[in-house]
Amino acid sequence: MSIKTANLGFPRIGSHRELKFALESYWAGKSDATALLDTAKKLRAENWKLQQQKGIAVIPSNDFSLYDHVLDLAVMVGAIPAAYGWKGGPVDLDTYFAMARGSTGQSHDGSTGGSHHGDCGHAHNGYGVPALEMTKWFDTNYHYMVPELRRDQPFTLTANTPLEAFLEAKALGIHTRPVILGPVTFLKLAKSTEEGFDTVELLDRLLPVYARIFAELSAAGADWVQVDEPCLVLDLSDRERAALSQTYRALGEVVPDLKIMLAGYFGDMGDNLPAALELPVAGLHVDLVRGPPQIEILLEKAPDSLVLSLGVIDGRNIWRADLNAILNRIAPLVSSLGEHRLQIAPSCSLLHVPIDLELEAGLDGELKTWLAFATQKLDELSVLGSGASDRSGVIGALEASLRAVVARASSSRVHDARVAARVAGIDGRMKHRGRAFLARKALQDDRLRLPLFPTTTIGSFPQTSEVRKSRAAYAKGAISEADYEAFLRRETEAAIRWQEEIGLDVLVHGEFERNDMVQYFGEQLSGFAFTQHAWVQSYGSRYVRPPIIFGDVSRPKPMTVEWWRYAQSLTEKPVKGMLTGPVTILNWSFVRDDLSRADVSRQIALAIRDEVADLEEAGAAMIQIDEAALREGLPLRKADWKTYLDWAVESFHLCATGVADETQIHTHMCYSEFNQIIDAIAAMDADVISIETSRSKMELLEAFRSYKYPNEIGPGVYDIHSPRVPEVDEMTELMQLARGRLSDGQLWVNPDCGLKTRKWEEVRPALVNMVAAARALRTMGQ
Ligand SMILES: CN1c2c(nc(N)[nH]c2=O)NC[C@@H]1CNc1ccc(C(=O)N[C@@H](CCC(=O)N[C@@H](CCC(=O)N[C@@H](CCC(=O)O)C(=O)O)C(=O)O)C(=O)O)cc1
Ligand SMILES: N[C@@H](CCS)C(=O)O
Ligand SMILES: [Zn+2]
């Protein structure tokens, strides 16, 4: 006897990024739909077979997506905005990708890859349709397409994709449990296109579509369906709770033969758990990695007939599990509920971890024994499934797990007494600059002598395929370090010359040497490991390789100073030092789980503080510390915000307060809904903050206006997520709107974010226009 193992979802991208290459080739018109769909089918089959081979009892289907699973659901239920020209019936690939990436009106567009958003023609051009908005999926670095719903939104089943997936697996002889995103989470994540209505109100119209999907699944032989409602870990309104209750009462009644495994994940269900336990579903999945105390409530309150799926293997991190500790933790449930009522599962879908540790030939041997990627997590599930009823059959695996846990806890690689002492020595003086902002501003203005409405950019210039190829060639040993660096110097010099030529006031070196704004720093800091193949989907065909923070963090040597020094040597204009901040490095890495995130952040901050000091020492008058992920790293529950913001702001201070008052500290945030965190932004006290505002027509500045925020701000005037080149007038108009909210002396002129995902053909005219807009502003009254 053993407890059933269940998986909630497997990464879609392929262990060698097969999906990315198939998609980008299709978009570029280099291959056809058949080739793309064949690759997708092959990946699905490989994933199912792998899980079968690993002995997973409950294997998911419909966890695959060509681009994004939220988009898939919107398309499946016919929630397709009129602009995409869908006339009913099955939805073709071009419509699907138009929603994902925008469209130029041609069948596919030839651009190989996006930015944060769909990247093709935009409606502002007078042709084409913009992509749906994109935003991060809960607190992950995965981004989903935001469905757009109107008050009179009809829903209709365009294709039963869970059924298709179920049948595809069945044809391979694999019985699966299809996955579908739940209707309440779907509606909650959607955006209403009209004022004054809550998308959850559309539930009555959506439920019949689910009922049909479920009925067809049941008729085809499915016995269970996994319905994901990650909203169960959020603060829910009464209406949302009522919607959950209505949904599961209704679906249970219409298709009684299909058992629902309702899955909540990404945290503790907290006050939603008792209500979830009362829903008339056959099973409930709980995330016991992020919410271990839920076990007590399950023991006390789980109804007799309910099957519990215990999310005990971390689906959000890459550490090898402490299998013995997990078995001990769930033992009371095993003895009280019995094996037949339990399933052993990852905390959430494995979408958020890389696929296979075995591919990491370059990773240090000892560190490797501490890690588990998706494939290894399947093995861990199997051991737990057997071990939960009888440990004797898995003694070897349990001993190996224990050895890894003990070795990691006591390893000298993990602990560095100097780092711990430095964190312990953080004192109040490191938490603020010398003088208050206005006094610093006077000193900085005197030093920098910038014009009104100074122009700058956010840091990166296009990462052309030439840049990427050169880095890949260097990594493979095909070109020498000297040749690679000479290439980067040429790129940097050309960027500096061009910025001078077009008249930007504050220059950047262009970040050509960086593969990614986080990975680049991870590769240079002690306590970090980096991988070769451990890609994780960020959105669509864009993936990241998050660094692994395994030990105490320190900086062996300066990381960016030489590139800054070189760039500054080429010009009289100021060049900004360019760094990624600790909270962003933390949020976009796999972080050790044996130290608080606050302390890891402090350690990174102290390393960045040293880099800031070295840049200042080298002569940098301005240093930018990007905190792109500070806002998006907010905890899911409001009650946890203050603690997070306190240490996040403290970390920024630790980076920024070692410099003289004459040195101007910049920060940049590209996810900019600031209303709820404006106190924290003000407390950061950066001399200049650049933010994303162009799409919101400067409305995001309202938070700064009403707060009477005194420091300087660069509200983005150029939407870098679109290939479109903004006109001079548009940018002056946007700045005029900004002038209505802030004083002239506070304002900078810059794009929304870095330009790494854009092409030079777009960037050149856009920045020429931006400089012209700033010049025009200097002569214009408000
Ligand atoms: C700003 N964003 C970021 C997030 N997270 C990060 N860690 N970084 C970010 O910038 N989160 C939120 C947003 C949006 N998210 C993303 C995520 C990913 C990209 C992106 O452009 N990804 C690239 C990969 C970038 C990278 O690491 N490149 C490496 C390796 C490149 C490579 O594959 N080389 C090839 C050969 C190259 C060639 O021949 O052309 C190879 O090795 O085979 C590098 O540059 O060295 C992606 O392509 O997915 C953007 C925004
Ligand atoms: N300096 C970085 C910030 C991106 S959020 C860049 O320009 O790409
Ligand atoms: Zn940005």
Automatic annotation (TrEMBL):
Binds 1 zinc ion per subunit. Binds 2 Zn(2+) ions per subunit. It is an enzyme of class 2 (transferase). It catalyses: 5-methyltetrahydropteroyltri-L-glutamate + L-homocysteine = tetrahydropteroyltri-L-glutamate + L-methionine. InterPro entries: Cbl-indep_Met_Synth_N, Cobalamin-indep_Met_synthase, Met_Synth_C/arc, UROD/MetE-like_sf. Its EC number is 2.1.1.14. L-homocysteine binds at I458, G459, S460, E511, D626. Gene3D superfamilies: 3.20.20.210. Its cofactor is Zn(2+). 5-methyltetrahydropteroyltri-L-glutamate binds at R17, E18, L19, K20, K136, N141, W588, E632. The active site is at H721 (proton donor). Zn(2+) binds at H668, C670, E692, C753. It holds the Pfam family Meth_synt_2. NCBIfam families: met_syn_B12ind, PRK05222.1. PANTHER family: 5-METHYLTETRAHYDROPTEROYLTRIGLUTAMATE--HOMOCYSTEINE METHYLTRANSFERASE. Belongs to the vitamin-B12 independent methionine synthase family. This is 5-methyltetrahydropteroyltriglutamate--homocysteine methyltransferase.
